[in-house]
Amino acid sequence: MNEKKEDFQKTILSCIQPTGKLHLGRYFGAIQNWVSLQSKYDCFYGVVDYHALTMPFDPKKMRNRSWELVFDLIAAGLDPDNMFVQSLVPEHTELSWILSCMTSYGELSRMTQFKDKSQQSKETSKDAFISAGLYTYPVLQAADILVYRADYVPVGKDQEQHLELTRNIAQRFNHIVGKDYFQMPEPLFTEVPKVMSTADPEKKMSASLGPKHHIDVFEDPKVMAKQIRSAVTDSGDVQPGPMSPGVENLFQLLRASGNSQDAYDEMMVEYNAGSLQYGKLKTVVGEALVAMTEPMREKRREINQDKRTYKDRVRASSEVIRKVAQQTLAEVKDLVGLLNVRN
Ligand code: TRP
């Protein structure tokens, strides 16, 4: 079935958790790529709020976080027609139950993300609450993918194991029902810039590290430039050998910001000659990032003026997208021997 489809008819699915604002790490690491895939494939992009319940959360902030991320993603270039919010498509969780009964305890115990996250929580607090949801979350992720019968899933390397699990679950499902129902979804690893925290360039830029560690895509230009100015570098006595992580990160950001190849080359020549002033590099990087994000800031302001319209659009697209999920679920229930209204 997979092979018979033309490439442009292939389905892409990816999801993002509403756990914070859109920062440059998430933008360069994923969203920029999602935006460009839209012109080639049939895309489904989800804001997965059920996933965000797996870690301690504040019910009062949940809904708002989901909507704000939806607005961020639209401003960053996602087409609202391609977007859904997971809690508006309950078939994800329904399929997840069925698939969880086809997943072994052992398989889930081997998931490194679970081991890392539960370990981290325990380190932060001895009696940390580790939810069963955190443990079974890869099954929900498998359901996210399989409910749309997705062909490709653009993800980072950190999600490779979850994709592998999804394929195993799909295979087991096919075996149990005695039919090649699910095709195997393939991960799509695209070369993307890896952006580090400017405050601690040994760590990946992430919202969970704290406010100093990430730069919001929609940040006020002055604040953005200031955050770059205070980026950690090195003493400036350039030693032979590899570039320090902080300086490398600034060069990465400069390249990622696009349209600054000349500036990049020029700075690199100076760096190699040992004459580069980091202050100058930071100014150039700050300006390039401010320029790149300007149209997104503009779009975000426009959305802010009219949030209701954008919410309605994404509610409507979630409804349309839900039809695909409903179709899959009806077929799955039939195959498994569960009851439907018709049988
Ligand atoms: N687990 C992913 C993450 O933490 C998010 C995610 C949930 C996802 N469901 C998905 C990614 C389905 C790809 C496909 O980043």
Account of the 3D structure:
- With 343 residues, the chain is mainly alpha-helical.
- The protein has two domains: 3-184 and 307-336, HUPs (Rossmann fold); 207-302, Tyrosyl-Transfer RNA Synthetase.
- The protein has helices at 24-37, 49-52, 59-75, 91-100, 105-109, 112-124, 132-146, 160-177, 221-229, 245-256, 261-272, 278-305, 307-336, and strands spanning 11-16, 42-47, 83-85, 152-154, 186-188.
- The strands form two sheets. The protein has a three-stranded parallel sheet with strand order 1-2-3.
- Strand 4 (152-154), helix 8 and strand 5 (186-188) form a beta-alpha-beta unit.
- Helix 3 (59-75) crosses helix 12 (278-305) and helix 7 (132-146) crosses helix 8 (160-177).
- The protein is globular and about 75 Å long.
- The chain starts with 10 loop residues before the first strand and ends in a 7-residue tail after the last helix.
- The model has no long low-confidence stretch (mean pLDDT 94).
Corresponding CATH superfamily of the largest domain: HUPs
Q: What's the β-strand tally?
A: 5
- Highest CATH level, the class of the largest domain: Alpha Beta
Largest sheet: 3 strands, parallel
Total domains: 2
Instruction: List segments where confidence is low: pLDDT < 50 over at least 5 consecutive residues.
Output: none
Please tell me how large the radius of gyration is.
22 Å
| Assembly context of the chains | single chain
| Bound ligand species | tryptophan
Shape by Cα distribution: globular
- The total of helices stands at 13
CATH architecture of the largest domain: 3-Layer(aba) Sandwich
How much of the residues is beta strand, in percent? Answer: 5-15%
